[in-house]
Amino acid sequence: MAVSPSQPDTAAIVVAAGRGERFGAPKQFLVAGGARLVDRAVETAAATCDEVVVVLPPDRAWDGPAVARAVPGGDTRAASVRAGLAAIDPHAEIVVVHDAARPLATPELFELVIDTVRAGADGAVPATPVTDTIKRVDGDRVVETVDRAGLIAVQTPQAFRASALRAAHEHGSEATDDAALVEANGGAVVVVAGDPRNLKVTTVADLPIVEALLAEVEATS
Ligand code: CTP
Ligand code: MG
Question: Looking at the predicted structure, is the pLDDT value of residue 195 above 80?
């Protein structure tokens, strides 16, 4: 279907309103390899989606690449996504949610999740195999070793049919990703091949790894 420029078909929400408690600072505003993490995330979203909304800490003004709108976030990631959902163009058919703390997501990965929703899924999430052995614990005591075969580690960008994402967020539920809310609401979420380089900066130990990966990407592009 032809889409006029005033009616975006795909909208991206880049969530950048976190406090970075595990890192010790709002890491999404740090510079790695010459650009802020949030600016890299916004630029890749803008290259693949018709409009981008960035969700910011309430005390911060947007000073990065051009976006359709910048809005204040909430106390939790889910609340920040809801703030983004209220700010995107209501005509967008597909909504992509992406963490500002993942500067290495490629345009190809955005396109893959978008195309998977276009092909009929309610949601599409990139995932990589779990390589460590996973155990369930009670305090420091191991209760169970979980069978790794059926487990995956999930990343962003995550794409959704806009109606499915709105319905999933309608009741203000909490989860660490949007797919969990869409699944809980009965939506069909499909897994696509994630990118092992698409790391999220979570602790200070992640930053030098992300910097090395960014340098490698620069050298080969
Ligand atoms: N995020 C957000 N609003 C929140 C919490 C998180 O927009 N209230 C965003 C973060 O800015 C980040 C993404 O969601 O880009 C993934 O969250 P996470 O890595 O957990 O970041 P923080 O919540 O900031 O870190 P921490 O959990 O260590 O406090
Ligand atoms: Mg968090």
Answer: yes
Query: And the tokens for 205?
Result: 């130990």
Identify the band that residue 155 occupies on the pLDDT scale cut at 50, 70 and 90: very high
Which among 21, 53, 99, 169 is the best mutation to test ligand 1's pocket, defined by most ligand atoms within 8 Å of the CB?
99
Residues with CB under 6 A from ligand 1: 15-23, 28, 55, 73-77, 80, 99-101, 200, 202
Residue 120, class by beta-carbon neighbours within 10 Å (0-12 exposed, 13-18 middle, 19+ buried)?
A: exposed
Q: Where residue 221 falls among pLDDT bands split at 50, 70, 90?
A: confident
Q: CA-to-CA distance for 126 and 26, rounded, in angstroms?
A: 24
pTM: 0.96
